[in-house]
Specification:
By secondary structure, the chain is mainly alpha-helical. Helices cover 64% and strands 9% of the residues. It folds into 2 domains: 21-123, Winged helix-like DNA-binding domain superfamily/Winged helix DNA-binding domain (Arc Repressor Mutant, subunit A, Orthogonal Bundle); 137-174.
């Protein structure tokens, strides 16, 4: 038996409903959905001068106000190096600005500007349309079940309770600043 045949045998669905084990298939589908959604969003946001990364950073700033780069990174799932580039682009576009607090000049905060809020309002319309299309014919009950399932999965992968709570509740209070 070759390696390909062995791999297929180790990940098979005993119920024959899916092409491989549900535990593998769920994660495969999440990855594919995320990639296709991001690709669609990138093409739909491009006329606004945005991409998914810039939109996500702006959405975090809109929700929480001025944020540290660590906070933006934690909520967007974007690594700090990439996020620095995103922040540079937002600042260059006039959609965000960097500032520091008087008590700690080393701590740089990023915040949206008025023009940033305006472009974000346009982007949100695109996001709503794409999400509605993605969830078309998926009953709200099924969406809620999927969300609850994903919350349990986050609970399994989050490094600690504070991080888990920050992700699940999309709240600053749950963020683990030390791990971000």
């Amino acid at each position: 038996m070759n390696v390909e045949q062995q791999t297929r045998q180790t990940s098979s669905d005993p119920g024959k409903e899916f092409p491989f084990a549900p535990s593998d298939y769920v994660l495969h589908l999440l990855t594919v959905i995320s990639l296709y959604r991001d690709s669609t969003l990138d093409s739909r946001l491009r006329p606004l001068g945005l991409n998914v990364g810039r939109y996500r950073a702006m959405a975090v700033l809109n929700r929480f106000g001025a944020c540290t780069m660590t906070e933006v990174s934690s909520f967007t799932g974007v690594d700090r190096t990439t996020l620095t580039r995103v922040a540079d682009q937002l600042v260059a576009s006039g959609w965000a600005e960097r500032m520091s607090e008087a008590k700690d000049r080393r701590q740089v905060l990023l915040c949206l500007t008025g023009p940033g809020r305006e472009i974000l309002d346009e982007a949100i319309k695109v996001i709503i349309e794409v999400n509605a299309s993605l969830l078309e014919n998926v009953a709200e009950e099924d969406q809620r079940l999927a969300a609850r399932t994903l919350m349990r999965m986050v609970d399994n992968v989050a490094p600690n309770k504070r991080s888990r709570d920050g992700i699940i509740h999309f709240s600053r209070e749950g963020l683990d600043q030390d791990k971000a």
